[in-house]
Design goal:
Structural class: mainly alpha
Radius of gyration: 17 Å
Oligomer: single chain
Number of strands: 2
Strand content: 5-15%
Order of helices and strands: HEEHHH
Number of helices: 4
Helix content: 25-40%
Shape: elongated
Length: about 110
């Protein structure tokens, strides 16, 4: 079963900011054509290690990182409105199910963030 980050069972989990500093992702994991996303320092360290463990010729490409809560909520609301427009006669549960079957390439910005 797929569970989206915007599902009520996920959004009901309380989030506490541990205060870990935000830092740019390691340069070799960033998309070369975009600004380097910000992630927590521990995430940046784990990304650097993961990059080193990849086979030669492969590299991570991090295109999104930390988002302020209001920015993430705005993304969810825009996407919910898009799904509601695409399925105007569906109820909320049906729209949530429809959002799980949309092609992932059309959901830019809907990614897990750390």
């Amino acid at each position: 079963m797929t569970v989206l980050l915007a599902d009520p069972e996920i959004t009901a989990v309380p989030v506490a900011d541990a205060g870990e500093p935000l830092v740019p992702v390691p340069a070799d994991t960033a998309d070369r054509d975009l600004p380097r996303p910000l992630v927590r320092r521990g995430v940046a360290a784990r990304l650097a290690v993961a990059q080193l463990l990849l086979p030669p010729g492969r590299r991570l490409r991090v295109v999104a990182g930390y988002r302020r809560e209001e920015d993430q909520l705005a993304i969810w609301h825009r996407y919910a409105a898009e799904v509601a427009r695409a399925y105007p006669f569906a109820d909320e549960d049906e729209q949530r199910g429809a959002s799980r079957t949309r092609p992932s390439g059309r959901r830019r910005g809907r990614s897990a963030t750390c």
